[in-house]
Amino acid sequence: MVSSPRSLELEIRSEGVAADTMRGLARILKSRRVYQGRVLDVRVDCVIEPGEVRAVREVVVHRGSVVVLATFADGRVLLIRQYRHPAKQSLWELVAGSIEPGETPLGAAERELLEESGYRAKRLTPLLDFLPSPGFLSEKMFLIQASGLRHSAAQPEADERISARLFTRRELIRMLRGKRIRDGKTLVGLLWLLSRIPFRQAINRKAK
Q1: Which of 113, 133, 180, 195 is deepest in the core (most CB within 10 A)?
Q2: What is the pLDDT averaged over residues 176-191?
Q3: Which fold has domain 65-204?
Q4: Domain coordinates of the chain in residue numbers?
């Protein structure tokens, strides 16, 4: 039987602040996995956080993922479109996917790019990593630029229905202005890319 967060909270004992909290980390008094899935786990942690904050935190555990910013020599960018059941809509996104056990971020980026779009990259360049929802999710996302692209056959998963299209930077700016890009990781990648253009040039350029 899975304990409720309230019952776990009652198990927190009155103890001094541990060395971990002094270093800016939470001290975990008790941790229990309440769900184990194919992609993620869920656990409930009783913790003492920095500042002697005692709390029960529900944590979604994910092994991490990659986001692939596929760019072409003429400035165009590859986006894919697929249906997302939790969002109840189809979304334009950058290629992305989970890192498999034993896989590196670069290896995952190469695999996901081929599976979802059919492209192979001559160069894969790590750009940054970010936390998409650190309030409850442990996932770290790695933004990786793919360049020197050549097309072959896509290899989507059995449950994926994906279409791909190349967009100019003007088209992307117009989509951003029109609030047509709603996926968070894609916003991060595109805004990073557009930040490489002088700010006023990117904002004031007239979308055609």
Answers
A1: 113
A2: 97
A3: Nucleoside Triphosphate Pyrophosphohydrolase (3.90.79)
A4: 5-61, 65-204
